[in-house]
């Protein structure tokens, strides 16, 4: 069973990305090359910038092997 990290803000997502990148021994430069993105973008993402493009974020998550899932709220049954 895999435990996930609840992502409720950009800062939490950035911390998860930084932690995963470092665990994999990747520099920002290496990850940027793998994703085709700039080091500046990755730095801003890791620092919780709230206006990052979702498409680019998904590229980073894919490169790191992070699966993004969403769970709808449970609805009360009468």
From TrEMBL:
Species per Swiss-Prot/TrEMBL record: Billgrantia ethanolica
Name this polypeptide is given: Helix-turn-helix transcriptional regulator
Domain HTH cro/C1-type: 17-71
PROSITE patterns associated with the record: HTH_CROC1
Gene3D superfamilies cross-referenced by the UniProt entry: lambda repressor-like DNA-binding domains
Pfam families to which the protein is assigned, alphabetical: HTH_31
UniProt cross-references to SUPFAM superfamilies, sorted A to Z: lambda repressor-like DNA-binding domains
């Amino acid at each position: 069973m895999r435990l996930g990290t609840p992502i409720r803000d950009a800062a939490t997502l950035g911390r998860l990305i930084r932690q995963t990148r470092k665990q994999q021994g990747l520099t920002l430069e290496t990850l940027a090359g793998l994703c085709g993105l700039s080091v500046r973008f990755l730095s801003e993402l890791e620092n919780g910038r709230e206006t990052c493009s979702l498409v680019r974020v998904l590229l980073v998550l894919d490169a790191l092997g992070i699966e993004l899932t969403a769970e709808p709220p449970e609805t009360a049954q009468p």
